[in-house]
Amino acid sequence: MRCHRDDAAQSRQTILDCLASIRLFDGLSPQERETVARHVILSEVAEGEIVFEEGKPGNYMCFVAKGLLAVLKDSPDKTDCAEICVAGPGSSLGEMAVIENRPRSATVAARKDTVLVTLTRESFHSLLDRHPHIGIRILKSIATALSSNLRETSHVLVAHMLPML
Fold it and tell me: What's the CATH superfamily of 2-164?
């Protein structure tokens, strides 16, 4: 993953444009997105590159600005993996990493060249401490996203279990 820290003005505008297109930041004003932009990093991921790997430590979450990512889950014996979903522009991944200090629950790989906005755990906690109203809005959006993912997973699980009953 290649991070962009040079050419600050261009990167800042690109980050602001990305944040405006990501659902998790819908409830933020332009000024609040400007504050968030100071806490995130713009990254490019080449097709086929791993963004993060299941079982490895994680300390950041990603927002897809452009491109497509595949979320992969290892089989219990680690001999195979299954694609459990794809994430395109506006999606967020790795939310649990900014909340808890546990290993990644899935592997994420780029299906296409992808542009990500990355928020580290440290930056998220800084937002919570320095700009609590923004941090709380983001935390609520993360909770909503995780709740939605859990509901969807529950529906899929029931659909797979019903034929066995």
Answer: Jelly Rolls (2.60.120.10)
